């Protein structure tokens, strides 16, 4: 007797009165929030590596710049005279005086600066330029946030103001250590950054530590020119060369840093004058000269005329390209290497 095959019955249609059970999964808002958090942390981590690269290349130039900015023309006739005098009297390590605060400070400052820059770019993009795509930029990589140039500049101003609250005390202590010319520690007012921090806080409190904050905010407000020009240079190189991303980062980073220093250098001279001005009181470092930013600006003009605002510019300009080019290569490279 032949066995008939068992018929396959069709599945019953779903009952419209019964709700369908959802498949458990990560909700899109939660997933987007996790992705955004990951993108934000990348900027802060990459900024640490930027700070290390910047200090290693740029600190000797910075020491020469600060000494020229804060001394009379009778002490050093120019950058070369300052360099040879420093090495002759203090050795090669004299060029790295005051390097400890920025070693820690640049890692922290670049982390805050570049991390907040990334955050502000995303914030501006999400709220004002959600559907924006730069014209004539078909090679825009996915890692670059699409914004018009002036919006990159605005993000730069916001990041500059944010990092000023970290940079002001670091640069203040560094500047005071850099203008101690004696090769003998016993003849110096401060034996090191911790000693300087302790003494200034003892006699002047937290306001003494943050001496020069206003001047720092003015100076770092010029980040508009840095990050605006970085976008211009990067966009041009992407569309007119066949260079790799690290090469573009190097050249755009170096050139945009030089644009920044040309636009901001006079305000940096005034800032250094304020930060190295005696605090007076129980510290015993002399009598305070400048109570306001404009008083320091007038003093620079009175001593040397308009050229006083550009004293020490050459070592700063020479430092700007290699130090910031390597810093941007490190930052963008780590940003690309970190997982999304």
Automatic annotation (TrEMBL):
Keywords of the record = Membrane, Mitochondrion, Mitochondrion inner membrane, Repeat, Transmembrane, Transmembrane helix, Transport
The annotated regions of Pro residues compositional bias extend over: 7-27
Report TM segments.
103-120, 208-227, 247-265
The primary location reported for this protein is: mitochondrion
In the bilayer, the protein is annotated as: Multi-pass membrane protein
Where is the protein localized?
Mitochondrion inner membrane
InterPro entries given in the database record: MCP, MCP_dom_sf, MCP_transmembrane, Mitochondrial_Carrier
Source organism's superkingdom? Eukaryota
Note the PROSITE patterns from the entry. SOLCAR
Q: Where are the Solcar repeats?
A: 38-123, 147-236, 244-337
Record carries keyword Hydrolase:
no
- Segment Disordered: which positions? 1-37
Q: What family is this protein classified in?
A: Belongs to the mitochondrial carrier (TC 2.A.29) family.
Report the protein name in the record: Mitochondrial carrier
Q: Which organism is it from?
A: Podospora comata
Q: What is the lineage of its organism?
A: Eukaryota, Fungi, Dikarya, Ascomycota, Pezizomycotina
């Amino acid at each position: 007797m032949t066995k008939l095959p068992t018929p396959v019955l069709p599945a019953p249609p779903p009952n419209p009165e019964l709700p369908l059970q959802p498949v458990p999964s990560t909700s899109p808002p939660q997933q987007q929030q996790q992705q955004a958090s990951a993108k934000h942390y990348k900027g802060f981590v990459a900024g640490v590596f930027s700070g290390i690269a910047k200090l290693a290349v740029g600190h000797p130039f910075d020491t020469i710049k600060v000494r020229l900015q804060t001394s009379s023309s009778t002490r050093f006739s120019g950058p070369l005279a300052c360099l040879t005098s420093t090495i002759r009297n203090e050795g090669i390590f004299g060029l790295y005086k005051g390097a400890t605060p920025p070693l820690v400070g640049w890692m922290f400052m670049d982390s805050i600066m570049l991390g907040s820059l990334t955050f502000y770019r995303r914030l501006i993009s999400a709220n004002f330029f959600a559907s924006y795509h730069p014209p004539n930029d078909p090679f825009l990589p996915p890692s670059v946030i699409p914004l018009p140039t002036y919006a990159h500049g605005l993000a730069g101003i916001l990041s500059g103001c944010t990092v000023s609250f970290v940079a002001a005390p670091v640069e203040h202590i560094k500047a005071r250590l850099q203008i101690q010319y004696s090769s003998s520690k016993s003849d110096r007012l401060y034996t090191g950054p911790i000693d300087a921090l302790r003494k200034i806080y003892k006699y002047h409190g937290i306001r003494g530590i943050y001496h020069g904050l206003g001047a720092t905010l003015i100076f770092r407000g010029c980040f508009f020119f840095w990050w605006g020009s970085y976008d211009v240079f990067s966009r041009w190189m992407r569309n007119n060369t066949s260079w790799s991303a690290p090469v573009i980062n190097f050249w755009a980073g170096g050139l945009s840093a030089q644009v920044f220093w040309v636009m901001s250098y006079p305000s940096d001279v005034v800032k250094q004058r304020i930060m190295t001005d005696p605090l007076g009181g129980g510290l015993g470092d002399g009598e305070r000269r400048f109570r306001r930013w404009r008083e320091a600006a007038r003093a620079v003009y009175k001593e040397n005329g308009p050229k006083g605002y550009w004293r020490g510019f050459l070592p700063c300009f020479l430092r700007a390209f290699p130090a910031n080019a390597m810093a941007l290569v490190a930052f963008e490279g780590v940003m690309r290497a970190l997982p999304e």
